[in-house]
Design brief:
With 476 residues, this protein is mainly beta. 1% of the residues lie in helices and 48% in strands. The strands form eight sheets. Strands 24, 26, 29, 31, 32 and 34 form a six-stranded mixed beta sheet that branches. Strands 25, 27, 28, 30, 33 and 35 form a six-stranded antiparallel beta sheet that branches. It has a five-stranded antiparallel beta sheet with strand order 19-20-21-22-23, with no helix packed on it. The protein is globular, with a radius of gyration of 23 Å.
């Protein structure tokens, strides 16, 4: 068997389920790496888990992730929600959200990989995000449906008197507790959760999960939706914050329809993440959902653009320019390739679990896996006639492949139409699946080179599961 793709999008192994990922670049013992801190979906029937682990990668290779093990366990063994980690001086502080985020503890370590010890209770709340400013002052941001921010004392736990701000950005109706709802709720552009502050180009950027309660037709959203990561910005850490935009949406590839609306191709769900600059390039870390619920999430990463307009506004995401000036921005693509911007190597084994397009919605899904083994795949299951699985993007190089191979199982005879560039694009191969088999190959009928999107359309009888695929330059 060929060597499998080691890191695509999700960027961690397919058996690892770390959502709410806060990326941080730290230098320790002379080595600079990007570290990811998030909650840990190990309960399987509820959000998150009872430990937090750390992964890191060298800043010059974001496909080479190392597992550092457990860095923190709750003081009472309770579920740990989204954390954050910052450095002040030679000490790293983990803000651990114990008891489902109702109790925020600050633990410390001299190593960014932990373990984080000596936890102390803070005055912060749900989904804490912390910013250590250039002058050493520390600011914290938190909240659920209602946002808060404040400056912290030197103990990194206590709110400095007179600095607490309520609603630094707009708030959303609380659908789970109507008693918390207030007048003046912004139904269009409202804070939901997932506070993540950053300082970019001298400005303060507040990344958060927005809950749209009005339709967003261009993304196929017609129901309340909190699958977006959005931002606002300010010249001061405690605000006031000004309008920004959306950075990411975890609803998969958005199909653009003739009437200007969009269609999602992946089941959206809650979202959480943060921005980080690595080697001069900015990235947004976010998460997607696997399985049939919200308890098997995986970390995702996409490159983003950052620019400042003549009026001082900061633009983040997929930026539109006019005469060299930024004029608007929107969510970046949801891809299978992530940091591999030139595309995944089409000649290695690629897990079906890297699909960023699964249509029609509500039919097939990516099955979560938890076995900690090299080369594990996360199959697409529940495939029926008409299911399409798409991957953006693959890299074919300058010499076209001659063969495609699909690893799958089928309950009845099926044909897999391999299409390029879009889900209704040119068919370049037809792979025949037969019950009882596991590996099926077919010749390509057209040459494909360079960076391309590839789609597998399943047509036929019964139900199928899709495990792997690869391309070869040799004929069958």
């Amino acid at each position: 068997m060929k060597e499998p793709i080691r890191s695509a999008n999700p960027y961690l192994p397919l058996w690892e389920h770390i959502p709410d990922g806060e990326p941080r670049v730290f230098t320790h013992n002379g080595t600079t790496r990007v570290y990811v801190y998030g909650s840990h979906d190990t309960e399987r029937t509820a959000y998150c888990g009872r430990d937090q682990v750390v992964w890191s990668a060298p800043v010059d290779d974001l496909t080479d992730w190392t597992y550092h093990g457990v860095c923190y366990t709750a003081t009472d063994g309770s579920l740990l929600y989204a954390p954050d980690v910052v450095q002040k001086g030679d000490t790293f502080y983990l803000y651990a959200a114990e008891d489902c985020g109702s109790r925020i503890m600050a633990a410390s370590s001299k190593n960014p990989a932990g373990p984080f010890e000596n936890p102390r209770r803070t005055e912060l709340g749900f989904d804490p995000g912390v910013l250590v400013d250039d002058d050493g002052r520390v600011y914290a941001f938190w909240g659920f449906c209602t946002s808060f921010c404040a400056e912290l004392e030197d103990d990194m736990c206590t709110i400095k008197k007179g600095t607490l701000r309520r609603h630094p950005i707009g708030h959303t109706p609380d659908p789970w507790n109507a008693a918390n709802n207030e007048s003046g709720v912004d139904l269009r552009d409202a804070f939901f959760e997932a506070s993540s502050p950053r300082k970019i180009n001298g400005r303060y950027v507040y990344v958060y999960s927005k809950r749209y309660t009005t339709p967003v037709p261009e993304f196929g959203v017609y129901e309340p939706c909190n699958g977006f990561l959005s931002y606002k910005w300010s010249d001061s850490p405690l605000g006031p914050y000004r309008d920004g935009g959306d950075i990411s949406f975890n609803g998969g590839e958005i199909l653009r329809l003739p009437d200007g609306t969009g269609r999602q191709t992946y089941r959206w769900g809650n979202n959480h993440g943060g921005l980080v600059q690595i080697g001069g390039q900015w990235y947004i870390f976010y998460h997607r959902h696997t399985g049939t619920d919200e308890y098997a999430r995986q970390g995702m990463i996409e490159p983003v653009d950052v620019a400042v307009g003549k009026d001082g506004k900061i633009y983040i995401g997929d930026i539109t320019y006019l005469d060299g000036e930024p004029v608007s921005s929107g969510p970046v693509e949801h891809t299978s390739s992530g940091v591999s911007v030139n595309g995944l190597d089409a000649y290695r084994m690629i897990s079906a679990g890297y699909a960023c397009h699964l249509s029609p919605l509500g039919q097939a899904y990516i099955q979560p896996v938890y076995e900690r083994a090299e080369g594990v795949t996360s199959p697409i299951v529940g495939i029926r006639n008409g299911t399409t699985a798409g991957f953006r993007y693959l890299q074919f190089g300058t010499i076209a492949p001659q063969t495609v191979t699909v690893t799958a199982s089928a309950g009845g005879p099926m044909t897999v139409k391999v299409r390029v560039d879009n889900w209704r694009g040119r068919v370049v191969a037809e792979v025949r699946l037969e019950p009882g088999g596991t590996e099926f190959s077919a010749p390509l009928t057209a040459g494909i080179i360079g960076r391309r999107a590839v789609y597998f359309e399943f047509c036929g009888q019964g139900e199928a599961s899709f495990h792997w695929f690869t391309f070869d330059r040799k004929a069958i």
